[in-house]
Amino acid sequence: MTPVTETLPATGAAAAQAGGAAPQSAAVTVEIFEVGGGLAAEVRAASGASPMACYQCTKCSSGCPVAARADLMPHELVRLVQTGQRGSALGNRFIWECTSCHTCVTRCPQQVDIPAMNDALREIGRREGVAAKGTAVPVFNEIFLETVRKRGRIHEISLMASFKLRTRRLLDDMDKAPAMFSKGKLPLLGERVGEKAKREQIFRKAVAAAAAQAGDAKGTSGQQGGSR
Amino acid sequence: MSYVFYPGCSLDGTAKDFYSSTSAVAAKVGLEMPEMEGWICCGSTAAHNSDPLLADALPAFNLQKAAGKTVAVACASCYSRLKMANHHIASDPVVRQRVAAATGAHYDGATPVLHLLEILGRQMEADVEAAVVRPLSGLKVACYYGCLLSRPPEVTQFDDAEDPTLMDRLLETAGATVVDWPHKTECCGASFSITDPEIILDLSDRILEMARLAGADCIATACPLCELNLDMRQKDIAAKRGHRYDLPVFYFTQLLGIAMGAAPKDLSLGSLFVDPHPLLRSKGLDPDKQPRVAEVTR
């Protein structure tokens, strides 16, 4: 494992230890080994987030808009990732109720990017088929991205119709539709844009990169991950 | 500065009133921003929830089309995704290389992206002030920014992350009284409107309640999802939580448009769910009636 070398300015004590005669600029070099393997390393490789930096101050949970309703609070989830409790970290409802509002990371003293960590956990959980039961978010995301691939832009009526059919929630919010139509907020025909071949290429490359990442994660589990 | 406008999918549908009021305000202040040719969806929440490369490559595909111009954005979600992609691409060579392979073109992450609030509030303040013909006197507005404009601050560099004031200052310039309130950047629940509306009811209820407690007559928003959640869900919040607000929720461009005397058809106030006309009439701001001469020559 490669240590991260940081040079810290000398404190009074360090300067005194150095013999007292050392000038104020004397510095102490500390080698910090980044610890954490398994799930924490996978999260870091996939998203750049560093859950190992968390020291459980709970500031994230204080500001989280969904902490009160979810089955876990964000600081608890980070701890599960730190300790590699894979089943709970991937199978909870919280990661699917996180609104990606970025309040946690904005206030975190250690800049632990919990929204990015959650993106990675969603992706890993979905790939391994252990995502929490009862969440409709993965189905919605899949339909959304399929629409982008085919049409280039989101057409809200088609998106909602496909989502309702797939999740059998046919009657949810149907009272909204007439008002939306009459207010002209739901055009019947969506725009389609050109360059479909280029879009197809972007989606193909993304699938290939995800597969490579999944292979890497299996092969190098326990080591620090590289770039996103 | 030369701009190209990236509307995003919502402005073609549920937020077409945001598009028309944006265009009306842009015309009044002389802001030229032709729509980007051949733009595609930024990928929104679905992309970053599912695939990191897609989340950077879809915005990059669009940003490459700006050809040296600054990309002007109205939707807070598009703004966030375009800026996040720029941040990843500019700071990480591996991401840059993967995005180039996916989109088939090199992109360095340097295309500037600005929200309308930044353009109008920082670069065209004098033009906005000069265009006001009908000050929004007596209208008490709670300016609601939501999550994605100001967070994370290292990426968006929009304004103060906890207490942004860009919209407050713009609406004060338009003559409104802005209220001091603590929920400017609380989350409304965003895209859970379709997948889990209960989350929206919880979160939007708190925001509406705080706006009312702060003494606001109405709320101004800068995001299609925020507007729809706070406006359309008031009926459900009344039915399911027993809290009735009847607080009109505007796009900030609609309020600026009223102050600038824009044509009622461009303001599209009829497309809001909570009818704002009784409030506007009570303040002498009925957009269907021409402002008095004294107001025009102010």
Structure description:
By secondary structure, chain A is mainly alpha-helical. Chain A folds into two domains: 38-134, no CATH class; 137-204, no CATH class. Chain A is built from twelve helices and two strands, in the order βαβααααααααααα. Chain A has helices at 12-17, 38-47, 59-63, 74-82, 86-91, 94-97, 103-107, 114-127, 137-151, 156-167, 176-182, 196-220, and strands at 4-9, 27-32. A two-stranded antiparallel sheet of chain A has the order 1-2. The two termini of chain A are 19 Å apart. Mean pLDDT of chain A is 81; it is low at 12-16, 18-23 and 220-228. Chain B has helices spanning 16-29, 44-50, 52-63, 76-91, 93-103, 116-123, 125-131, 153-156, 166-173, 192-195, 197-213, 224-232, 234-241, 252-259, 264-267, 277-282, 293-296; strands at 3-6, 70-73, 113-115, 140-143, 177-178, 218-221, 249-251. Chain B folds into two domains: 3-116, Glutathione S-transferase Yfyf (Class Pi), Chain A, domain 2 (Up-down Bundle); 133-296, Rossmann fold, CATH 3.40.50. Chain B is built from 17 helices and seven strands. By secondary structure, chain B is α/β, with parallel strands linked by helices. Helices cover 49% and strands 8% of the residues of chain B. The chains are: A mainly alpha (228), B alpha/beta (298). Chains A and B meet through helix 7, helix 8, helix 9, helix 10 and helix 11 of A and helix 2, helix 3, helix 5, helix 10 and helix 11 of B.
